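Reviewer 2 asked us to include a model.

Predict the structure of this chain.
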Amino acid sequence: MQTIIVASTRRYSGKTGVCVALIDELSRRGLDVGYFKPYGGMPTDVDGVMTDRDAAFINGWLRRPSPVTDVCPVVRSRAFIEDLLAGRPIPGPAEVAAAFARVAEGRDVVVVEAPSDLEQGAGAGLSATDIHQALGGRILLVENTTSAEAPDRVLRAAVIFGDSFVGVIHNRVTDPDHKLVETQIVPFLASRGITSFGVLPHDPLLSSVTVREIVDVLGGSVLCGEDHLGDLVESFMVGAMGQEKALRFFRRKARKAVVTGGDRADVQMAALETSTAVLVLTGNMSPSPAVMGRACDLGVPMVLVDTDTLSAIEHLDLLFGHVRLHGPGKAERMRLMFTHAVPVEPLLEALGIASSSDNREL
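Predicted model (structure tokens):
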């Protein structure tokens, strides 16, 4: 049985998407693949069991799912943090190792998604390095690489993981950075003995959320447009300027959420003249009848929240920063991007996966 640990040095690098694509590629080769997330950060309830939202999604997507109680044995809930800080007993490396053994039983490969960065989970003895020491396996780094900084984090990760480190996938690379990453950063890392297994582009669709998810995370009230709560939102913009400037500003992005004060009718009208998927009105101030009527005519949901604009922005920043694969077609889209940009056979060879037709010899 082979263990592959997918790690990253910073949040929002896209580990979950790479895990999904990797699992799919391995499954297509006839392998029995398991998924394990030892330390989850997005608590959710599944049939009375506290687990991680992404872990529950990927596990349910597998051909042979693991028990919900095992796939993510530690979840960073508020109660968990309180117990950790108070010195009360919490699940740690021993519980993680036991759950992993149950997930791995009878499998050919288990793909392990490490915590968000190299520090997360350290207080519980469950950082990426702790997990590697407990479970073994080979390390594949997924990095949100830009051309604006030297790849110091990648170099440091290679030192930390030593011989278990197989290389890096550069993920969520924007169009302006793509060429420089390929022509400068990839060769630079190669000169230091680090293999790059592809440069994947940033895809706004993979980071998109539904209007309903925005309503849920902000705890808002829907004033109109209830029939469009399932529409996708690719980004958000903040309206805090005059109407003329706002109109030019809002034209830069399509399928967006616009966050503005409930008393800013001018900004709201400007947003409705562009491709806006939802208007978020802060300060618990209802819109004017003219704005409400225009939004209803266009079918654009308006969401009223009682928080201030800054708080709403902070919540949305966390929501949009995470690549979400739960929507229809997103997992397949990620797989196609992966197979297009990544030399799959060399990657699997580096990970210790047989490339022959008889993969059962693992």
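Residues 345 and 355 are 7 Å apart (CA to CA). The chain has a mean pLDDT of 90. We have added this to the supplementary material.
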